[in-house]
Amino acid sequence: MEFVKRRGFSSTSPWRAGEEEVSDTKRRDWASLTPPLLLAVLRRLDSLEDFFAFRGVCRAWRSAGAPSVDALAGQSPLLLLTRFPSYTEAFFDLPRRRLYRFRLPWSVHSRRSLAFVPGGHLVTATHSPKSKILLWNIFTQSQIRLPTAPLPFRRVLLSSNPVTAGHHCVVLLFSKGGSLIQYSRIGDSLWTIRDSDPSIADMIFFRDGNLYALTATMQLLVADLSADRDFHPLRNGSAAAPAPASAHYEQFLAEAGGDMLVLCHRFQRGFDVFRWDFKRGRWVEALDLGGRAVFLGSTGFAGSIATGTGLGIRGDCIYYVGRRKDAWYVFSMEEQTIEVLSPDSPGLLKGESAMETVWVLPSLC
Question: Residue 52: which H helix or E strand, with range?
């Protein structure tokens, strides 16, 4: 992996090119910074370029800069876009409107990037049928190979960080609108296939460790895959949704600030948003996102982050993508408006494409 480097710096040295060699004493002073001070510095770094430069200073700094939620808290959201005509992938920094060079150990003709998941892993797969799935860590370049998927799929979910959770991490494959799901645990050699019945509009692993599913009628179902249980409604999960599902183009399950949400896409008119009330067992209208920003990729929920960091990410907004490879959209819940944005960078694939557009949120690692 290679990022564009700032003039006078390299990924392995923090010192400016051409400057006199600093004394060993000063170097020792920098190397002796305590872990809390190093973490304070890391939290102020808001680009992966600076993050990798920090890790290249010395072994102590590299250790302090191990990818974690604390170390990456200040990192801004990125989009993984496709270059043309090379069909290689590149990171686009939203707040800075900068394109980073990014080398993947495969081409998009042989593999497709599907999602960015806990622990800093990019989920990639060969094309159907019988896709070979790989989890590739963008920070350490370590790899986790999964069994070949027996059925086609479009959406990938992970229950937890695959490195720290190990065999307890569940990987789930499904296609929105279908009833068949495939799941496997890290280290397994086969997938388990289950018919959810009824068909599923979307699914999400929530903070309690359970898998929740949304039907086309906005009924919320739950299943604990660790116990291989069937899906079942939540209380009176058939409680009427505040708006008919037929009025919406598509529904997405999401999470923001500990709340489970359903984002009902009204196509060119934005979103209706509802929050699940666990006490009353029904959906209630949500007028804001608690100041957070929610990100939707080509196939579903990618994550939510707190705003107010000065990076240009707006609170109470839904950032989402469509089939166009050269644009993304920002829906403001407060203003009920949609803003269309584009990278304005030469050499990127433009127009409509079936290839997924992936949000990369380092601060959630």
Answer: helix 48-55
**Residue linked to tokens 């960080």:** 161
Residue in the structure block whose two tokens are 């019988």: 130
- Bridge partner residues of 274 (DSSP): 262, 285
pLDDT at 1: 47
Could you give the angle at which helices 48-55 and 35-42 cross, rounded to 10 degrees? 150
DSSP secondary structure of 92-125: EETTTTEEE----SS-TTTEEEEEEETTTEEEEE
CA distance 151 to 131: 8
Tell me which H or E stretch contains 193: strand 192-195
For the record, the structure tokens of 126 come out as 């060969």
Tell me phi and psi for residue 51, to 5 degrees.
-60, -45
235 φ/ψ sector (left φ>0, alpha ψ -120 to 50, else beta): left
Q: To the nearest 10°, the Cα dihedral for 295, 352, 347, 120?
A: 30
Ordered mean pLDDT values, 10 residues apiece, the chain (365 residues): 38 34 52 84 86 87 86 88 80 84 71 89 88 92 93 93 91 90 94 85 88 90 72 58 60 94 88 93 94 93 82 89 86 95 79 79 86
Cα four-point dihedral sign 302, 307, 309, 312: positive
Give strand pairing partners of 180.
195
**Angle at 141 (CA atoms; ends 310, 226), nearest 5 degrees:** 85
**Residue from 352, 350, 344 nearest 93 by CA:** 344
Q: Which amino acid is at 285?
A: E
Q: Please provide residue 165's backbone torsions phi and psi, each rounded to the nearest 5 degrees.
A: -85, -25
CA dihedral of 268, 269, 275, 280, whole degrees rounded to 10 = -120
User: How confident is the model at residue 75, as a pLDDT?
Assistant: 87
Distance CA 245, CA 202 (A): 13
